[in-house]
Amino acid sequence: MSFLQASAKPASAISTRLAASGSSHHLLSCGPPRMHVLQLTRTHNPWQRVRFSSSGTSSSPKPGSPGFWRELRRIALLARPEALPLTGAVLLLSVSSAVTMSVPFSMGKIIDLVLEGLKEEQSAKSTDSGLPDPAQSQAVAAAEPTKPQDVKGPSNPLGAILERPDPESQSTERVSLPLIFGGLLAVFAVGAAANTGRVILMRLTGEKIVFSLRRRLFQNIMKQDIAFFDRNQGGELVSRLSSDSLIVGRTVTNNLSDGLRSLAMSTMGVGMMAYINLKLTMIMMMIVPPVALSAVWYGRIVRDLSKKTQDAVSEATKVSTERFGNVRTVRAFAQEHREIDLYTDKARAIYNLARREATASGFFFGGTGFAGNAVMLALLYYGGSMVTSGAITVGELTSFFLYTAYVGGSMIGISGVYSDLMKGVGASSRLFNLLDTKAEIESLPSKGLQLDPDRVKGHIQLRNIAFTYPTRSDVQIFKDLSFEVEAGTSVAIVGHSGSGKSTVAQLILRFYDPSTGSVTIDGKDVKDLDVAWLRDNLIGFVSQEPVLFAATIRDNIAYGRPSASLEDIQSAAEQANAREFIESFPDGFDTFVGEKGYALSGGQKQRIAIARALLKNPKILVLDEATSALDATSEYLVSDALDRLVEGRTVITIAHRLSTIMKADKIIMLESGQVAEQGSFAELMNIPNGKFRELVQRQLGDAVEDDD
Fold first, then answer.
1. Are residues 465 and 507 in the same domain?
2. Is 671 exposed, middle or buried, given 0-12, 13-18 or 19+ CB atoms closer than 10 A?
3. Claim: this prediction has a pTM higher than 0.70
4. For the chain, how many structural domains are there in total?
5. 602-616 and 566-575 helices cross at what angle (nearest 10)?
6. Which domain holds residue 610?
7. Segment 2-55, tens digit of pLDDT
């Protein structure tokens, strides 16, 4: 940052410039005093602003538009619960900024005091040695510089002032400098304490805002309909939940803190510069228009590139998430290099966008740095002339240069905050879209009837159902579908692939609502029931490919009833024919099953899923082809477990295997979105040219002969 880098230059340049102006000023170019001035000019470093960059998105409306201010207002409202600590942080920020901006002014006053003491010291020595007065000796000193050995006493002028032998004539100087340094040290301690409190409050507040935002976002995502997840990939949602929420949280806290600090330092700095010298201030202010215009240009570029970058990051996240989750399929087809190339292309797109942003950043900071250096040269030229003419003192010019460095750094900081703000608004647009998305089917406890589970019989009826999937609205799944399942009976839903068998299960579970018609349980429309209570208390579900979480066997079985005791879990596992193989593992029920249960076989996973359903003890059980992918031994064990599971319950089985179908009390054959046939196995097999009979014949070949 050129302004900050240039802040150390004026002191040496000034001392060189003033070397020829007179004997009293000439001493400033000697070793110790000159080093002392250089140390003073570098004291601003401990308060130098540090800004952390972060990537983000920007699908935001254009700055200044109503949509932009609306998004900005919503971001600000995120901080409302943390108004008290934020207010405290802002107050501490004011204190620390005031202390920081007092440094240049104090340094200038100290320098002037030191130079005045040096002048009086020189005058006193000239009087004691019988030399002419300082006005006459000034010309001599200018023509013939004083040699170091001609100056008696301490080589450090500050030490000469503090150790002056005449207590009466120099009592003011001897007392004032220690008091000044002691007072400044106390002020700096207050500033350090205020800055410490500000950082702690801002960090903690920022983390709380990010935590609250992530919790709200995750909660709202989990409440969405299944159709929402059909339309949105998991990798993209993870990207919104992790990176976007962090960017928005930092916009409210870090950017707010940095922006207010830069604004306060710029305002106070310009005010102090005008107080020192208005003419030099006007020269310095020439940099404001080009910096402001370049900041607007840079902010627009960052906004556009950030949107594209976040989209590219989301694409890369989706690819990696999907490939990691299906790594066995990738390995089975030896497509590692293909997937690596695909991800490389996505990552290269991110790199190309970052390269464009880096180029824009280089031009912006390079241009502002050049403008800052040019202004510094102008200030040095005019300021040096004013010192020579006596319009301002050396200390005042030093203070002015320090304020220039502070103001320049703050202006660059404000432009950086502006670009980060664009990223925050862009990320917030995506997050607020997710937060504003409302689900038609609530997945968490909400309004609706909650029946007495002990009085529910489990009678199910589908009446005049018409349905299409939200993501495939052009494909009609059901049209005028109607059937009923008597309480306590077992019904098998059969049909050709794509006939809608699994869709029946999803309608009963109310993953989707039908376009027309109704699904009722004991005469109550499922739309009128509390959907979370319905799934938690009435319906148990075992899918064709059971999903296990990356946890222990105990955790997976107890998922539907987290409060279950170990004895209950073991009993459910025993009924599901799973306890024997579970206890054969070294860790037993505490065995970690890996992601999606890949550490277990298909039959083992299925039996754990059945144990999970048994532990829940539901009134209605939905089995979605639970044995279709198992070998004969596993199928026998799972079927035996299912026979125990269905006792005393209403069971709907979606199945292809004849062994499963034959056990059902009633079979419903689906075709073309309607019920083609229904009845017992024997009744349907006795229908000549029946749809179900044809389906069985295709499965068994010539094993089934026509009785006619």
1. yes
2. middle
3. no
4. 2
5. 120
6. 453-703
7. 433 333 333 333 333 333 333 333 333 333 333 333 333 333 333 333 333 333
